[in-house]
Amino acid sequence: xxxxxxxxxxxxxxxxxxxxxxxxxxxxxxxxxxxxxxxxxxxxxxxxxxxxxxxxxxxxxxxxxxxxxxxxxxxxxxxxxxxxxxxxxxxxxxxxxxxxxxxxxxxxxxxxxxxxxxxxxxxxxxxxxxxxx
Length: 133
Prior knowledge:
It is a single chain. The protein is of the alpha/beta class. It starts with a strand and ends with a strand. A five-stranded parallel β-sheet has the order 3-2-1-4-5. It has helices at 7-10, 20-28, 38-52, 58-70, 82-92, 96-108, 117-125, and strands at residues 2-5, 32-36, 74-76, 111-114, 130-132. Helix 3 packs antiparallel against helix 4 and helix 5 (82-92) packs across helix 6 (96-108). The protein has one domain: Rossmann fold (3-Layer(aba) Sandwich), CATH 3.40.50.
């Protein structure tokens, strides 16, 4: 089975957060982990906040970004998902960033794995398989 991973999961692979053990367990499974290329920007944003809060150094953030994106088996270009993501965003009245994950899960008939409760609700509304991390 293929799983779409969002940034709330990928960040837990490299930072000590609630749910980090469950996120790490996904790596031990034999499922393909995929994400839209947008995830690199979202991981970077989360890490930048940690650097600004003096919780990480720049070199630690750069290393964490490389590790987190490297653990994703396949990165799908957002250009392939942009039109459908916009349709979903308009339909659900939800910001488009999350809708790239929804569009990918829909296209691949895959389950979305996230720790974002709002995104879980949107996925369920669309009848997309979703797992709460």
